[in-house]
Design a protein that fits this description.
196 residues, alpha+beta, Ribosomal Protein L9, domain 1, 2 domains, 5 helices, 9 strands, elongated
């Protein structure tokens, strides 16, 4: 199906471009969300007549998104999740979780569809996530995913808590082995009663 784009769509084109898309994409996404019009003679006339208004409206929303993006860009959010000893989460962090934590802070209204995640996050640590506030405005936020608030603070300082945990366990094991040897375990002093 040929459509006229009413806003810039990444990978498809800019405002006013006539592109060919799959019928389902047009019917289920572009047309209901007013991102495109069917490309026919009457819609071309309507678009040409309203082009200046559409461009002005798009510029206004871009400016508003740019202002929101300035406040959002570079912010950091802490998510406390359960995870195993190796740092793998029991579950994952998806776009909805990111949108919920940003909205809870109240700085910017973010919808789940605005969060750009190639795949869900399944490990502890600091993760940079892009938030597309407008087709031309993207902000980057940092998610600090940890098992506790203390662990999140350590990660924020740059400490790798998983490696630190393994190092602490290794040092404790070495100390226990040293204590065992110094305590005389395995050594028995026998007094066999004097002369032979």
């Amino acid at each position: 199906m040929k459509v006229i784009l009413l806003e810039r769509l990444e990978g498809w084109g800019a405002l006013g471009d006539v592109v060919t898309v799959k019928d389902g994409f047009a019917r289920n996404f572009l047309l209901p969300r007013a991102k495109a019009l069917r490309a026919n003679a009457s819609n071309m006339k309507v678009f040409d007549a309203q082009r200046a208004e559409i461009e002005t409206r798009n510029a206004r929303t871009k400016d508003a998104a740019g202002k929101s993006g300035e406040t959002l860009d570079g912010t950091s959010y802490i998510l406390v999740r359960q995870a195993g000893e190796s740092g793998h989460l029991y579950g994952s962090v998806a776009g909805r979780d990111v949108a919920d934590i940003i909205n809870a802070e109240g700085s910017t209204k973010v919808e789940r569809a605005m969060v750009v995640l190639d795949k869900p996050i399944k490990t502890l640590g600091l993760h940079e996530v892009k938030v597309r506030l407008h087709p031309e405005v993207t902000a980057t936020v940092t998610l600090n995913i940890a098992r506790s608030q203390d662990e999140a603070e350590r990660q924020a300082r740059g400490e790798n808590v998983i490696n630190a945990q393994f190092e602490e366990e290794r040092e404790a094991a070495e100390q226990a082995a040293t204590d065992l040897l110094e305590g005389g375990a395995g050594q028995m002093e026998r007094d066999f009663g004097g002369d032979a």
